[in-house]
Amino acid sequence: MGAAGALALTGLPAAFAAPSATAVIAEVYGGGGNSGATLTRDFVELGNAGSTSYDLSDYSVQYLPGTPSAGSQWQVTTLSGALAPGARYLVAEGTGSGGTTALPAPDASGAIAMSATSGTLALVAGTTALTCKTAADCAADTRIVDLAGYGSAVVREGSGPAAGASNTASVARAASSADTDDNAADFTAGTPTPVNSAGQTPGSGDGGGDDGGGTDPGTLRVHDIQGTTRLSPYAGRTVTRVPGIVTGVRTSGSLGYWIQDPQPDTDPRTSEGVFVYTGSAAPTVAVGDSVLVTGKVSEYYPSSTSQSATEITAPATTVLSGGNALPEAATLDAGTVPDAYIPDAAGASVESLALQPAVYAQDFYETLEGMRVTFADARVVGATDAYDELWVTVKPEENATTRGGTLYSSYDQPNTGRIEVMSLDASAAFPVANVGDDLSGPTTGPLDYSTYGGYNVQATQLGTLADNGLKREVTRRQKGDELAVATYNVENLDALDDQEKFDRLAEGVAVNLNSPDVVALEEIQDDNGAVNDGTVTAETTLKRFTDSIRAAGGPRYTWRYIAPANNQDGGEPGGNIRQVFLFNPKRISFTDRAGGDATTATSVVKTRKGPQLTYSPGRIDPTSDAWDSSRKPLVGEFTFHGEQVFVIANHFTSKGGDQPLHGRYQPPARSSETQRAAQAAEVNTFVKSLLAADRNAKAVVLGDLNDYEFSRTVTTLTTDRVLKPLITTLPAAQRYTYVYDGNSQTLDHILTTPSITSFDYDVVHINAEFADQASDHDPQIVRIDVSKCRNH
User: Fold this and answer.
1) Within the chain, what is the greatest distance between any pair of CA atoms?
2) Cα separation, 490 vs 486, whole angstroms
3) How many CB atoms lie within 10 A of CB 771?
4) CA angle 409, 415, 417 (to 5 degrees)
5) What dihedral do alpha carbons 686, 691, 693, 695 form, nearest 10°?
6) CA distance 147 to 134
7) Is the pLDDT assigned to residue 707 strictly greater than 80?
8) CA distances from 37 to 168, 170, 193, 778 (A)
9) Which of 246, 427, 564, 612 is the most exposed place for a label (fewest CB within 10 A)?
10) 304, exposed or middle or buried, with CB in 10 Å at 0-12, 13-18, 19+?
11) Are 677 and 683 contacting, i.e. CB atoms less than 8 angstroms apart?
12) Nearest one of 556, 502, 558 to 529, comparing CA atoms
């Protein structure tokens, strides 16, 4: 086949209502691998009755069941290259478990499991799935170049579908590829005769099917396929008999295996490994097999903003031998992983940039994508999760926290030593690790990429867990003249949760936080949780929770909250999460002023006795656009030892929708930050109104702000120095409340007005660093000596 640039491009054919004089569907076979079949794979063969080459770029072959149901959809296999005059073009489809003979090397590959006896195939100008499901509707779709219905197909051309298709018989046109737009007349049943664009047939000596069509490697190696950027130069093209050693096999989730070329090139930018995706078919190879792989190169994007993983899809594999030595694994450590994270593309994609593995960590990992990597004696920086995954750092000195994690301290210097670890050995128990533990000895396996966290090691050898004994913290009890105010995100707590969750969270309040005077809770749901029936009250939820705190040795707390309007505050649909004040009436009193509700704003009134809230509890400007589909701040007025204290509980909008640190757009866009900045401005304005009424007003602003201490959100919240973020008073290695993708970071905050000068602040680490969590957030507490706070 000649170069694409040299091909003559024919005009777009009309709908199949007018017979095609050029490209047509020449043969259809859906019995591959079925009982009695000789061929192992389904196929569609195209022909060209014209006198010029037919460009198939951006074309597709699509399949619809013979009798489509309401839920049936056209399945698509994309094409590339061109169809020469008088030639054939072979599209390989689904593989069965039977048969003995492979197809010749296909010109395109898909994984459609076609019916042997009834179905419809369409040659389509475009790659978007068709939507028609009747012959008349499909005849009106001008994208359809040709169509073949067989068996009892509802969608067909002419008087009826082609007859006689079976496990052992295809339906094929005459050799002339003549098209009269009558499937029954144009196609006849017979022995399948697959031919590719090179004129090869099964067993002709240069195929690419399950037997490889030969035992000699093709002209391309893995490093050719991977190339020197993040995208393969062969994406969308079929590659033939690519050699490699199987280094890992994945038998759950995304099925397939990794191969690595034992004969690398000398270019450090080109990876020698690649993932071979087998679709729904379990891999039949073993680690150590020497194989030749034929299939279509694709770039798999786990999400719309992630980088891609280069794969070979719809593979045909020849196993040459087993038990071969594996290629040497590349070492991941402080000496090999660069300190810079990823190139800056001014917000655009980095995909076209030449890789610089000696400069950027993400480029370095990309050049190892699919290859065996290894690290030894790495510290755990992200605890084992519910999916049997954990995070380690291969740079133990990089931004270490006091408890063994890795601190995320700025946007422009992400931690480069973090790497996620999973296991390919489904028979072995995955270690249950906490932050600060170690994986001692080597961990080795292919390097993969996924939407959750980016690059990860698919371990075929997993290090041994060394438990370093991380303990849950217990903060000290407040003194008699200290007001203790805490914040705790209790992760969608509702009355339908099991008692164990209530007990674990209650212990956190009564024991680890040592029974604060006031606890601002985030994510208290309504009384029936995610049941979406209009319920907005949380009385049953709070009764169970406060009873559990009492049973754990805490005080008998009272509560205040504003019930949200149904489904207006974001969070889990039907859950109606909200902030709640718990307070110990034996230590502090709440000033109730009725009238606050979901849509009515509270405000500050200046009186001779000091500032007062119009409504307590109340909400800050709840109808402002800043709070659309988000939690509204809860404000309460308290009295402690004769002193007024205002508490503002917050739960700002989530970071959902932000581009990932490891994604292809760099630097990543933080689109969610815009709304949080607007929310921070609302709270800042409210605090200013409080200070305008009394410059010595004592206020505590706290909660889950869903943003970092160096973020625009916190900067906006503290504008004009009306609030002090207490997280900044801690040593840098202690500034975190949450762990995500191996980064210890601050999302939860306590801030205070200038008059609060005598305080003791503590983040109480009881959840985020542990595999066994009551919540994914750590609580925090401030103890304020109200009598010593200055009046100025």
Assistant:
1) 101
2) 12
3) 17
4) 150
5) 180
6) 12
7) yes
8) 5, 11, 13, 61
9) 427
10) exposed
11) no
12) 502
Asked whether 708 and 414 are in contact (CB, 8 A), the reply is no
- 202, 39 contact by CB (below 8 A): yes
Residue 412, class by beta-carbon neighbours within 10 Å (0-12 exposed, 13-18 middle, 19+ buried)? Answer: exposed
Residue 14: predicted pLDDT: 34
Per the CB < 8 A criterion, the answer to whether 460 and 444 are in contact is yes
For the record, the structure tokens of 373 come out as 């990597």
Confidence of residue 434 (pLDDT cuts 50, 70, 90): very high
Query: Given CA atoms 203, 209, 215, 218 in this order, what sign does their dihedral have?
Result: positive
Separation CA 116–CA 33 (nearest Å): 10
Token pair recorded at residue 355: 């890789």
Burial of 13-48, coded b for 16+ CB within 10 Å and e otherwise, reads bebbeebbebbbbbbbbbbbbbeebbbbbbbbbbbb
For residue 571, CA distances in Å to 154, 575, 629 come to 46, 7, 8
Torsion of CA 350, 355, 361, 364, to 10 degrees: 140
Q: What is the identity of the amino acid at 515?
A: S
Q: How far apart are CA 81 and CA 100, in angstroms?
A: 29
The DSSP string of 632-673 is PPEEEEEEETTEEEEEEEEEPPP-TTPPPTTSSBSSPP-TTH
**In this predicted structure, what is the pLDDT of residue 790?**
58
Residue 11: band (very low, low, confident or very high) from pLDDT cuts 50, 70, 90: very low
- For every residue of 182-197, DSSP letters joined together read -HHHH-EEES-----T
**CA-based nearest residue to 193, from 83, 88, 286, 304:** 88
The answer to whether residue 313 scores a pLDDT higher than 60 is: yes
Look up the pTM and report it: 0.76
Q: What angle do CA 61, 66, 67 make, to 5 degrees?
A: 135
Contact between 82 and 56 under an 8 Å Cβ cutoff? The reply is yes
In degrees, rounded to 5, the angle at the alpha carbon of residue 761 between the alpha carbons of residues 760 and 765 is 135
Q: How confident is the model at residue 105 (pLDDT cuts 50, 70, 90)?
A: confident
Sequence-distant (≥ 6) Cβ neighbours of residue 498 within 8 angstroms: none
User: Tokens 């990823």 correspond to what residue?
Assistant: 342
Q: What is the pLDDT of residue 253?
A: 87
Q: CA-to-CA distance for 600 and 147, rounded, in angstroms? A: 63
What are the pLDDT digits (tens) for 736-777? 999 999 999 999 999 999 999 999 999 999 999 999 999 999
Token pair belonging to 300: 């798999």
Q: What are phi and psi of 52, to 5 degrees?
A: -130, 160
Task: Report residue 506: phi and psi, to 5°.
Answer: -65, -40
Read off the pLDDT of each residue in 196-210 and give the average, rounded to a whole number.
64
Does a cis peptide bond (omega within 30 degrees of 0) precede residue 357?
Answer: no
Packing angle, helices 499-507 and 539-551, rounded to 10:
60
Residue written as token pair 């007062």: 612
- Distances from the Cα of 527 to the Cαs of 109, 541, 634, in angstroms? 53, 6, 19
Quote the CA–CA distance of 399 and 142 in Å, as a whole number: 60
When the pLDDT of each residue in the chain is averaged and rounded to a whole number, the result is 92
- For residue 374, the SS3 value is strand
DSSP 167-187: SS-EEE--TT----S-HHHH-
Residue 313's H or E segment, with its range, is: strand 309-321
The pLDDT of residue 280 is 82
CB 172 within 8 A of CB 190: yes
DSSP designation for 113: -
Q: Are strands 518-524 and 578-583 parallel, antiparallel or unpaired?
A: antiparallel
Q: What would the two tokens of residue 178 be? A: 């003549």
